[in-house]
């Protein structure tokens, strides 16, 4: 059996138990594009938290994880992320569109709206929304762009209300400097900031990253080792326009959105 046959069978087998969203036309078309275009062998996936069935597909190509969630990895390993910063830097609309254009299928890129674009050190990250859903793109320090997550249907702005939060992407990938987390979500109309807080299992050390929040969406990426990903405690501090704040478990939020 050829690699193409194995890939096709794996994708279709993994998609069987996933309800409504995968049955929709955008998801079916995406599966066919993956089977038709991705012929390269990929390394084994990094660990990703279990995602409720509403996640249709994460990762445009590569090895499958539960509920048709993909995690893409890069070859090689190197030093730690010396250039990473907890505070994001903005990128121009032109640069964001260029990244999206290299990441999304042509038919999606032409109609996609970039809602998040940021840099941290030598890496850039974009979240784009199109009729096909939300797609996150990551550009490494060598200029290579990878589509890291796809969700075909988002929770509506009306359901999120003023202070609701949806975390729809929280996958892990590997660059030539090590592993990183890619986070993306959707927030209510009164959410002004989101902070991601990581604490080690023994509680002795912690790390905080401030997400980019724009037009009802938030996004961030941060270094997190493969072993750390299964032992760290990750929370989100969500602040609203009235000065109030709520702390949410990232793992619980990834399984089910918080509605207002």
TrEMBL record:
<keyword id="KW-1133">Transmembrane helix</keyword>
<protein>
    <recommendedName>
        <fullName>Tat pathway signal sequence domain protein</fullName>
    </recommendedName>
</protein>
<keyword id="KW-0812">Transmembrane</keyword>
<keyword id="KW-0472">Membrane</keyword>
<feature type="transmembrane region" description="Helical">
    <location>
        <begin position="55"/>
        <end position="75"/>
    </location>
</feature>
């Amino acid at each position: 059996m050829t690699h193409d046959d194995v890939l096709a069978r794996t994708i279709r087998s993994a998609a069987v138990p996933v309800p409504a969203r995968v049955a929709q036309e955008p998801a079916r078309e995406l599966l066919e594009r993956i089977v038709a275009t991705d012929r390269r062998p990929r390394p084994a996936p990094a660990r990703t938290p279990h995602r409720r069935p509403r996640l249709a597909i994460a990762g445009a190509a590569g090895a499958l994880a539960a509920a048709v969630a993909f995690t893409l990895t890069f070859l090689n390993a190197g030093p730690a992320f010396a250039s990473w910063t907890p505070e994001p830097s903005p990128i121009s609309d032109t640069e964001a569109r260029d990244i999206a254009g290299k990441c999304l299928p042509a038919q999606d890129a032409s109609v996609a709206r970039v809602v998040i674009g940021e840099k941290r050190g030598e890496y850039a990250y974009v979240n784009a929304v199109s009729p096909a859903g939300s797609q996150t793109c990551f550009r490494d320090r060598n200029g290579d762009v990878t589509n890291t997550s796809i969700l075909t249907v988002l929770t509506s702005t009306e359901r999120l209300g003023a202070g609701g939060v949806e975390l729809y992407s929280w996958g892990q990938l590997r660059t030539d400097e090590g592993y990183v987390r890619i986070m993306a979500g959707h927030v209510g109309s009164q959410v002004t900031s989101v902070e991601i807080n990581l604490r080690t299992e023994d509680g002795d050390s912690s790390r905080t990253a401030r997400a980019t929040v724009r037009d009802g969406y938030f996004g961030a990426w941060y270094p997190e080792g493969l072993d750390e990903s299964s032992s760290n405690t990750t929370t989100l501090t969500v602040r609203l326009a009235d000065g109030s704040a709520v702390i949410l478990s990232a793992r619980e939020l990834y399984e089910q959105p918080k509605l207002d």
